Amino acid sequence: MTLIHRLTLPKALTRLSPLLLAALLTACATTAPPQAEAPSAAPPPAPTPTAEATPAPEPATDAAPVVRTMAAELLEDNLRPGEKIDLDAPDVNADLWARLRGGFQLQDLDDDWVRKAEAWYSARPDYVDRMTDRGSRYLFHILEEVEKRGMPAELALLPFVESAFVTHAVSSTKATGMWQFMPATGRDFDLKQNIFRDDRRDVLASTRAALDYLGRLYKMFGDWHLALAAYNWGPGNVQKAVARNQRLGLPTDYASLKMPDETRYYVPKLQAVKNIVLAPDRFALSLPPVANHPYFLSVKIERDIDVALAAELAGLSLETFQQFNPQMNKPVILAAATQQVLLPYEQASAFAENLARHNGPMATWTAWVVPKTMSPSDAAKRTGMAESALREVNRIPPKMLVKAGSTLLVPRAAHVVDDVSERLADTAALNLAPDAPPLRRMSVKAGKGDTIAGIAARYKVRAEQVAQWNKLGRHTTSLKPGQTLVVYTATTAPAVTQAKATPAPQAARPVRVAKATAKSSPARKAAKVARGGKGNTVVAAAAP
């Protein structure tokens, strides 16, 4: 489309007040750079003076044309700069499913795997209803991005396979979001992951990253089926499978490669979804109507705001608000990192107007950088929180210390004016350390008559631990004179002079204690020796 449409506003948007216009409600949500955004709104017109009030510098009658001019920018489609959304235009009210069908390009698969997937979906009409209903919120935006890149429209259906369009989905392998990004892959495509937000769940950012990734994979393999296999299995694995077939003189298409069943089933599942979209009646299924215009708007925010307050101002339940803005990890949205929230049309206008009218605090939370390593109880005292509340909101497990430089979410004091900085919003991390004294590694030589029980008692560990960790028999009791023992303990080593004065009951001569060393992490050393020590080395650890 290249024509600039006449703007026809929904009813909710025709009632916009000057306060609403000051909230900078922008268009269909997008991650476009600043130069692609709609022009900023002008300041709201002065209020109409009363009889007692001093007349405003400019006549109130000038407000109406200003309002109309500013309202004309509210539905600017940033995915197609310069064009306006005309909600009365025939193509806007057409069925988006028909537009999807018209963009299908991939070569069809037709095998037993496809039949299996079709049967699975056909047997679960309620599941398909929920899945397509969720997908209807995001399909317009995804299809716009797919078409903008000249990609096959089938790619817009991929979240049906990946997550059933559950924006907060997490797999057993920690793949997250609608497009199921692994942590490392997400970072490769600039999806921020920190204590405040996880952009793998962000509708706009994850869609941009997923299509960037798929485009890269297509350039690598020159085949969309192989690109999809690589999206699921990893490009390195697909390259190896292709190379193997090349060595054997076999075809290298998707159906000919040796791959895990999950990947073998992956593209056929997408084919099954495509077949359902093409002819839902054939499978006794139905698709919800989806209009060919944005389902949601983006509303710019300029100050930190609590998630609960944002949902309240939008007139949405917290759960519904989070379906559109699922990337938040904490109960506060930081404006420095999340400049906009996504909301349905009606709720977007209500949010903008209520936000402009809101006079109370916007955010009751802020970020605090821990100045030194401390316990959660000390941190709670410093910030005026209950320890249980601090642990819960920051997800601090028991028996852990908060390391210096970590960032904690804490109550925002009334005198705090500044919002969280962009640097902190993007780099905040929580680093923890065990809340226990460090274990010391000591080498000990057993004396004549020394036993496992005696050594264990001397260093306050259990005899069965010593035997188990050092692969000694259950009934082994004595140790060879001069045998070297490595002991990990928080207890200070007994002095040699003390050992002479008070020998162990069965010791014929004093125990010689070698110099304690701590060249590496005690826990790692203990684990390494426990996996299989050499010679006569014996390992002990402090009792819990």
From TrEMBL:
| Short name of any one Pfam family annotated for the protein | SLT
Q: Which residues form the LysM domain?
A: 442-487
Q: Which SUPFAM superfamilies does this UniProt record tie to the protein?
A: LysM domain, Lysozyme-like
Q: Where is this region: Disordered?
A: 34-61, 515-544
Specify residue ranges for compositional bias: Low complexity.
Answer: 49-61
Kindly state which keywords UniProt assigns to this record, in alphabetical order.
Answer: Signal
Instruction: Write out the similarity annotation.
Output: Belongs to the transglycosylase Slt family.
What is this protein's name? Answer: Transglycosylase SLT domain-containing protein
Q: Which organism is it from?
A: Pelomonas cellulosilytica
